[in-house]
């Protein structure tokens, strides 16, 4: 007969499992926002923010107010990572083993905010698909010792790797060859033509992925992409959609930054 105290010792309150799963997801993406959590869990933004702030008070998340007028970013703390790891089996979620603690930077903050909501929307729309973040892709390619969805870019005589912001793996039909993944990019910056063309060319030639979907928040960025895609004749491989087609209104994204503010490497 199992002692009563032993039975109680194995009980984990549902709210702890819920919190641990939320922290694991934050760590997999690097950082999340209240809007992203609300999208993923079909909550109001206020309820999502309350859950995140409660985890901050308990020391499981760190809150960063990086850009004025934009959403706050929440990053898993060391204690939060330990909690998520501990309850992964009971929670039935995937613990992102082997990844370093995420950091938030001003340069990447706007991109990180948009990416979190895009991934959340994709997860909710395609619950039977496996969707991983750039951080998870880095880890999986390192563990397997091969490229899965990253591409090799050659420009100015040098070679470098480029990782998409997220990767979608459709479910595998029984007895059939696993389908190729779809790469997802959140593009908010006006990259130099040479760089953008090199990335699109690498994607267009990649035989490890089925297609690439870009999400942009300005017409200028979209036009730059369309020009590169047309030049490469890659219309069947690369699609461009407005950010608003997949996520709702995000604080700070109502008025897009100017070209001089967005020139960079995001």
Description:
This protein has eleven helices and nine strands. The chain has 266 residues and is α/β, with parallel strands linked by helices. The chain has two domains: 1-104, Winged helix-like DNA-binding domain superfamily/Winged helix DNA-binding domain (Arc Repressor Mutant, subunit A); 105-266, no CATH class. The strands form three sheets. The chain has a five-stranded mixed β-sheet with strand order 3-6-7-8-9, with helices on both faces. A two-stranded antiparallel sheet has the order 1-2. α2 packs across α5 (78-86), α3 runs parallel beside α7 and α9 crosses α10 (219-232). The longest helix is centred in the middle third of the chain and has 20 residues, at 106-125. The radius of gyration is 20 Å and the shape is globular. The relative contact order is 0.12. Residues 1-9 and 257-266 have low confidence and may be disordered.
């Amino acid at each position: 007969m199992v002692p009563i105290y032993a039975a109680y010792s194995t009980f984990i309150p549902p709210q702890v499992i819920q919190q641990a799963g939320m922290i694991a997801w934050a760590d997999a993406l690097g950082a999340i926002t209240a809007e992203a959590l609300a999208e993923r869990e079909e909550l109001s933004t206020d309820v999502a923010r309350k859950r995140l702030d409660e985890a901050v008070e308990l020391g499981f998340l760190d809150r960063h107010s990086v850009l004025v007028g934009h959403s706050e970013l929440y990053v898993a703390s060391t204690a939060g990572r330990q909690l998520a790891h501990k309850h992964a089996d009971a929670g039935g979620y995937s613990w992102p083993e082997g990844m370093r603690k995420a950091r938030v930077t001003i340069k990447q903050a706007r991109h990180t905010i948009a990416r979190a909501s895009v991934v959340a929307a994709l997860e909710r729309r395609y619950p039977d698909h496996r969707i991983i973040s750039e951080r998870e892709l880095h880890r999986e390619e390192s563990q397997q010792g091969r490229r899965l969805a990253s591409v090799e870019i050659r420009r100015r005589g040098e070679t470098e790797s480029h990782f998409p912001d997220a990767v979608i793996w459709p479910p595998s039909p029984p007895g059939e060859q696993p389908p190729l993944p779809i790469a997802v990019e959140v593009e908010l910056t006006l990259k130099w033509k040479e760089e953008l063309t090199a990335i699109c060319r690498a994607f267009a030639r990649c035989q490890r992925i089925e297609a690439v979907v870009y999400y942009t928040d300005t017409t200028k960025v979209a036009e730059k992409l369309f020009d590169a895609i047309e030049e490469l004749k890659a219309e069947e491989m690369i699609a461009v959609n407005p950010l608003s087609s997949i996520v709702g209104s995000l604080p700070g994204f109502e008025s897009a930054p100017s070209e001089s503010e967005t020139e960079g490497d995001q």
